[in-house]
Amino acid sequence: MRDTTTAPVISAQGLNLTFQTNDGPVHALKDVTLDIGKGEFVSFIGPSGCGKTTFLRVIADLEQPTSGTITVNGMSPEAARKARAYGYVFQAAGLYPWRTIAGNVKLPLEIMGYSKADQQARVEKVLELVELSGFARKFPWQLSGGMQQRASIARALAFDADILLMDEPFGALDEIVRDRLNEQLLALWARTQKTIGFVTHSIPEAVYLSTKIVVMSPRPGRITDVIDSPLPRERPLEIRDSPEFIEIAHRVREGLRAGHLDD
Amino acid sequence: MRNIFPVLTVTAFLIALWYAAVIPMNAQWAQDQARRAGQDLSFSALVTDTMSQQRPRLPAPHQVALELWNSTVVEEMTGRRGFMNTGSLSNRSLIYHGWVTLSATLLGFAIGSALGIALAVGIVHNRAMDASVMPWAIASQTIPILAIAPMIIVVLNAVGITGLIPKAIISTYLSFFPVVVGMVKGLRAPDQMQLDLMKTYSASGGQVFAKLRWPSAMPYLFASLKVAIAAALVGAIVAELPTGAVAGLGARLLSGSYYGQTVQIWSALFAAAILAASMVALIGVIQRVTLKRMGMAT
Question: Cβ separation of B294 and A98 shorter than 8 Å?
Fold first, then answer.
C-alpha cells in the first residue's frame, strides 16, 4: 500500500477563479478546497461548465486563480510547472504530424535537454508501457485514434513527472476502445505509482478508475461531493457489475443531480 | 502521368481556339494587300496569308513557336553572336534575355522571401509589429508597381546603383508580401492546445518557434513561395521597362512593341510564362520532397 497520510501532493484552499467575458464575469471556480494525496487517482466529474477542466488547468499553471491558494508538491503551480512536476494529456492527442511516434514522445525530452542516449532509452520504455513498441517509426496519421491517445500519454510519461493530469483523454473515443484504454491506464498507474488527476464526464469511467471521485456542478463551478472509493486497487472490468460499484455510481449520479437542482 | 491527358486536351483546345482567332484578326491586312494588288483573295489564300504575316496583329501559334526556337537554340548554335561562335550568349537570344531577367528575379525572390519570413516572425512575436507592420505591407501592395518602379530605378540610379540590384529590389517589393501573409498565418497555425502543451514543458520562446511554429508553417511557406516567385518575375520584367530596353525579357517586350514586332512580343511573353511555370514547378518539387520527409504528405 502507498502512504497517503503524508503531506498532500496537490492542495487547494478556498480557490476562486472568475473569467471576465463580454457577457460579464463567469464564476468558473468557487471556494474549491481539495487535497490530493500521493499515488491517488482522482477523477473530476460534472457537466460542462462545472470548472473541472479549469481546476486541472489551475493545477497546471495554465490558468491563474483569482483568489485562494494552491500548492503542487508544496510549491506554487508555476514553480511546479518549471520544475516539470507533471505531464498533461489533452482531450485531443495533439501529436505533431511531422514527427514519428517516437519523435513525438521525444519532444518534451528534447525541450528539457535530456541526452540523446537517455532520450532513446526513455522513448523505448514509455512506448512499451503504452503497448506501442512496434509503432515508433510510424507517423500519427498511420495510427488509430486510440493509439494516438496512447502515444500522447506516453509523451506525458516520458519525463519523470510524478503527477499526470488528464483532461478527458478518452472523451473522443468509442466505448470499446475506451474500456480497453481504461484498463491499460489502471495497469500503467499501478506500475508507475503516479498521482493522477483525471477529468471526465462518464460516470462509469470515473468510478472504475478512481480512488477518489470529485463531483462538481456548474454556475458557479464548485465541488458538491468527494467520494473515497472503497473499491480495491486491483480492478478487473467485471468489477463494474459489483454492488459496490453500482452503489458508488449511484452516489455520483445523485451528486450530479443535486448540483443541477440549484438551477 | 495519369493527368497528362486532360492537360494535353485543354492545350489542344486552346491552340485550336487561337488558330481560329488568327484568321479574323489578321484578315483585314490580307484583304487590304490583295485589293491594292487588284487581286481577288480566295478563302484558302486568305487563311494561308493570315498565318504567315510578318507583323500580324495576332501571330499564329507556330509563328511564335518558330520564333522561340530561332531566338534560343538556333541563335546560340549558329548565330554570328551566338554561344557556339563567341563562347558567350548572344544578345539577340531569349536565353540571354531570360537569364538577365531570371537573375534579377532570383535575387529579388531570395531577398523578398527572407524579408517576408523575418517580418512574419516579428509580427507573430512582437505586439508592436503585429499592430503596425501589416497595414503598411498591404498599403505597399496597393501602389501600382508600374508607377513606383521607374521612381525606384531613377532614385537608385542617382545614387549610383544600377544593373541587377534595382530590378531585384522591385522583385523584392512584390514578392515579400505573399510570404508575409502566408507565414503569419502559418506561424499562427498551432492551436491553443499545442501552445499549452509547450507551456507545460516550460519551453522557451525559441523552442516553441523551432519545434512547433516553424514546422507548422511549412505548408504555408511553400504555398506563398509559389506566389512570390511568380510575382518576383513580374517585378523583374516591369523593372526592365523603364531602363531603356537594354536587356531582359521586359526589354524584349518593349522593343517588340516599339517596332510592331508582335511575334517577338509573344515569344518573349511565352518565354516569361515558361520561366515562371518552371520555377513554380521547381518549388512544387522541393515542397513535395520536404513535406514527404516531414511525414506530412499523405
Answer: yes
pLDDT band at B120 (very low <50, low <70, confident <90, very high): very high
Quote the minimal CA–CA distance from B296 to chain A in Å. 6
B181 — pLDDT class (breaks 50, 70, 90): very high
Write out residues 234-263 of A within 8 Å (CB-CB) of B: none
What average pLDDT score do residues A90-110 get? 92
Lowest mean pLDDT: which of A167-176, B59-68, B106-115, B229-238? A167-176
A98 touches chain B (CB under 8 A): yes
Does the structure show a pLDDT above 50 at A1?
no
Distance of CA A194 to the CA centre of its chain: 11
Q: Strand A222-228 and strand A212-217: pairing? A: antiparallel
**What span, in angstroms and rounded, lies between the C-alpha atoms of B96 and B91?**
6
ipTM of the complex: 0.86
| Mean pLDDT rounded to a whole number for chain A | 88
Quote the pTM value. Answer: 0.83
Residue A98 resides in a domain: no
Q: Is A213 in contact with A207 (CB distance < 8 Å)?
A: yes
Give me the total of CB pairs closer than 8 Å, taking one residue from chain A and one from chain B. 48
Give the residue among B30, B76, B71, B22 at the shortest CA–CA distance from B51: B22
**Does B226 map to a domain?**
yes
Which of A61, A81, A96 is the best mutation test for B, with the most CBs of B within 10 A?
A96
Query: A263: how many CB neighbours lie within 10 A of its CB?
Result: 7
Neighbouring C-alpha atoms within 13 Å toward the C-beta of B33? 13
Q: Is position A205 within any domain?
A: yes
Q: Does a structural domain hold residue B6?
A: no
Nearest-by-CA chain A residue for B297:
A98
Do residue B294 and residue A108 have CB atoms under 8 angstroms apart?
no
**What CATH number has the domain bearing residue B172?**
1.10.3720.10
CATH of the domain at A227: 3.40.50.300
For B186, the grid coordinates are 502559418
- Residues in A closer than 8 angstroms to B197, CB to CB, are 88, 90, 94
DSSP state letter for B188? T
* Domain interval for residue B263: 94-293
